[in-house]
Amino acid sequence: MNAAAEKQQPCLHHDICVHIFTASAAMVGVCLTVIGIIRVVISLRRPDIFGDDLLAINAMLYLAACLVSYWALRTRNLRRNHRLERGADVLFLVALTLTAVNAAFIAWAVSVH
């Protein structure tokens, strides 16, 4: 790819990758904390809910977003950086949506039991 073609591509927003990296890493910790809390509630009340499994999947999505955004920050290839940045955005938004679904499911499951 020549220099003129690279200049035509939109400017990268490195700040977005940094925010996705830090936020998704923090959300992995949040998911693990909530899984631990749910396990305590389950051990006290004995009903097993599917919410901890969903949160484990959610943590993996946040971890994937974190790793892809880190890769985007480390790459020197501008085209690869754009693709990785978009991938990190998509993974983070999917994980964020699943977090809201998990919250609703856990609230419903805990209130039913």
Give keywords.
membrane, transmembrane, transmembrane helix, mainly alpha
Question: Can you walk through the features of this model?
Answer:
This protein has helices spanning 3-8, 14-45, 51-74, 78-112. By secondary structure, it is mostly helical. Helix 2 (14-45) runs antiparallel to helix 3, helix 2 (14-45) packs parallel to helix 4 and helix 3 (51-74) runs antiparallel to helix 4. The longest helix has 35 residues, at 78-112. Keywords: Membrane, Transmembrane, Transmembrane helix. The chain crosses the membrane at residues 20-42, 54-73, 89-110.
Short description:
The protein has 113 residues and is mainly alpha-helical. 86% of the residues lie in helices and 0% in strands.
| Number of strand elements | 0
Tally of individual helices = 4
Largest sheet: none
Poorly predicted runs = none
Overall mean confidence score, pLDDT: 81
| Global structural class | mainly alpha
Order of helices and strands: HHHH
The radius of gyration over CA amounts to 18 Å
Number of structural domains: 1
Proportion of beta-strand residues: under 5%
Using the alpha-carbon principal axes, give the shape.
elongated
State the separation between the terminal residues, measured CA to CA. 60 Å
Helicity range of the residues?
over 70%
Helix/strand layout:
Elements: H1 3-8, H2 14-45, H3 51-74, H4 78-112
Helix pairs in contact: 2-3, 2-4, 3-4
